[in-house]
TrEMBL record:
InterPro entries: HMA_dom, HMA_dom_sf, MerP/CopZ
Name assigned to this protein: Metal-binding protein
Limits of the HMA domain: 2-68
Matching Pfam families: HMA
Organism: Komagataeibacter intermedius AF2
Molecular function terms, GO-annotated: metal ion binding
Length: 69
């Protein structure tokens, strides 16, 4: 398992954070997601044999937010 911290921009409320969690949890291979609205970050544990950071970025983007390192 790999761990990555994503910087998320555009989150303004708990509902936004929930959308990001839901989007990331929907990616195959994601084992754990924790989002900090205050820090603007998502902490993700994932199986690198199944997914990769680009898939995680795409999921956040599809949810309407911007993600980066």
């Amino acid at each position: 398992m790999e761990k990555i911290t994503l910087n998320i921009s555009g989150m303004t409320c708990d509902g936004c954070a929930s959308k990001v969690v839901h989007a990331l949890e929907g990616v195959d291979g994601v084992a754990m997601v924790e989002v900090s609205l205050e820090q603007g970050k998502a902490f993700v544990t994932y199986d690198s044999r199944t997914t990769n950071p680009d898939d995680l970025f795409a999921a956040v983007d599809d949810a309407g937010f911007d993600a980066g390192y």
